[in-house]
Specification:
By secondary structure, the chain is an alpha/beta fold. It contains 20 helices and 7 strands. Helix 13 packs parallel to helix 17.
Length: 476
């Protein structure tokens, strides 16, 4: 009898450590990524560093509470771990880690199972009142997390099965084709600013190929990857009879320093036909406002904006968190009108800071000039033709677009640095693109196009196709 009890207790204790085993992947990802605005060790933002420290503390705390047989302490660690998987959504670099959303869901599921075992211990020690409450919380967490795991796992399995319908005799060729397609979708580098060696195996770089360096617009955020302009461009160029490949070095949230770091990843001796640097107009640096903006657009309070940003990120955290995001958003009035107000404040600030009389104008101007010049010199080592600077505007109304001076300034800087500029603002106007109607949905692709939230950076599939056509014309 004592042996059975011992085995039972060891099994319970092993199950309770399962969440910490699952959490190793997010823990490592948090330390490997580099923040876009690093302030600690030249690598991490303050918030990411604090989250990483919290993640590390989970392990000794859970071990200590286990030794002391402190059930409430273990519950606190497990609940904190669940919250950490939600807080991590605020960091775009961590969010871009492969399979991270699925792993977070697995962590929450494991936490639910661990809490369930603790609930049974509560029943034996503290009686049914606290034990039943713990069991209820554990069952709810298991139910919601299971839904997340099923949805995320189904998406991954469906994508794999869709590519595995080749016959047995053509398996090797099909497998290589699948890996080449996956490599194309990933691009040459990941968000850790490391070169993907498998990419070079399945999609070798040739002297007639094109390389595009950019950010989340290039990655096709919020649109089907097969309809992003990088994929459409390759299809158009290949249709002309030339087997041209379009290679991508991209990083979500990148800016001029990241663009330079990305192109430095190219192996020595790599030669291409053309290199394209795809920037967003928001890449032009502005200072943080020292005083609240005064204008005709009222701005939400700081607390409201923090909460609204947090709720917005929930939409990227899996099926149930997206449902929570959809339910809370209307109560916060966190919809297109409020976002327009906030963006109007940013546009107004950016426009005012382009005045040459602004105290920091020359510094910011020189910052962009220096990085464009350094990028152009590196591009000249890998391409026989001058690089192209592709400039993406904000997805807002273009009948009275307030940032035209910024676009003109970037075109001028591009000419001076040896780029061939392609300003999409001019293309959009000429093709009657509506920046409001033709921007992409802010919801993560894969869950459908739902009304209620739109971003102001990323275009929809129609605009991606137009960008591909214009780039093909310029390249030909």
């Amino acid at each position: 009898m004592r042996t059975r009890t011992t085995i039972y207790m060891k099994t319970i204790q092993s199950l309770q450590w399962m969440p910490l085993a699952c959490y190793l992947y997010p823990l490592i990802a948090g330390f490997v990524v580099t923040s876009t605005s690093p302030t600690i060790f030249g690598r991490y933002s303050i918030s990411l560093f604090a989250l990483n420290l919290l993640s590390v503390c989970f392990y000794p705390l859970f071990y200590w509470f286990s030794k002391k047989q402190h059930l409430l302490g273990k519950c606190a660690v497990l609940v904190s771990m669940c919250f950490a998987t939600v807080l991590a959504l605020q960091n775009m670099q961590v969010l871009a880690t492969p399979y991270i959303v699925l792993v977070w869901a697995l962590v929450r599921l494991a936490c639910g199972i661990s809490l369930l075992t603790i609930g049974f211990q509560f029943l034996q020690i503290r009686g049914p009142r606290r034990g039943l409450l713990m069991l209820l919380v554990a069952c709810l967490l298991i139910g919601f997390s299971t839904a997340d795991v099923i949805v995320e796992g189904y998406a991954e399995i469906k994508a794999a099965l869709a590519r595995s319908n080749a016959g047995a005799n053509a398996w090797l060729q099909a497998n290589r084709s699948v890996k080449a397609e996956k490599a194309r979708d990933r691009g040459l580098a990941d968000n850790f600013l490391k070169l993907d060696e498998d990419y070079l195996v399945y999609r070798p770089i040739g002297p007639e190929d094109i390389l595009i360096v950019g950010d989340s617009v290039l990655l096709g955020q919020n649109v089907d990857p097969s309809n992003s302009y990088r994929v459409r461009l390759e299809q158009i160029l290949s249709g002309t009879g030339s087997p041209t490949k379009v290679h991508v070095l991209a990083m979500g949230g990148a800016n001029f320093p990241q663009y330079l770091a990305l192109i430095k990843l190219l192996p020595d001796g790599t030669q291409l036909d053309r290199i394209v640097l795809a920037v967003s107009i928001t890449d032009f640096p502005i200072e943080a406002p020292k005083v609240p903006d005064e204008g005709k657009f009222p701005k939400p309070s700081r607390v409201h904006r923090i909460v609204a940003d947090f709720v917005y990120r929930l939409g990227s955290g899996g099926y149930t968190l997206q449902l929570l995001h959809s339910a809370i958003t209307p109560w916060l009035n966190n919809n297109g009108s409020n976002q327009e107000i906030d963006m109007s404040g940013n546009v107004s600030r950016l426009t005012s800071q382009l005045d040459p009389a602004h105290s920091s104008f020359q510094t910011r101007f020189q910052f962009v000039r220096d990085y464009l010049s350094r990028f152009s010199k590196l591009a000249a080592k890998h391409s026989k033709n001058p690089p192209i600077l592709l400039i993406s505007p904000l997805m807002i109304r273009y009948d009275d677009y307030p940032l035209e001076p910024v676009h003109a300034l970037l075109r001028e800087l591009a000419d001076q640095a040896g780029f061939q500029p392609l300003d999409l603002l001019l293309i959009y106007k000429a093709n009657h693109i509506d920046g409001v109607l033709d921007r992409s949905s802010g919801f993560r692709a894969g869950f459908g196009n739902r009304d209620g939230f739109w971003d102001y950076i990323h275009p929809n599939e129609k605009v991606h196709n137009l960008i591909a056509e214009q780039l093909a014309l310029l390249l030909n």
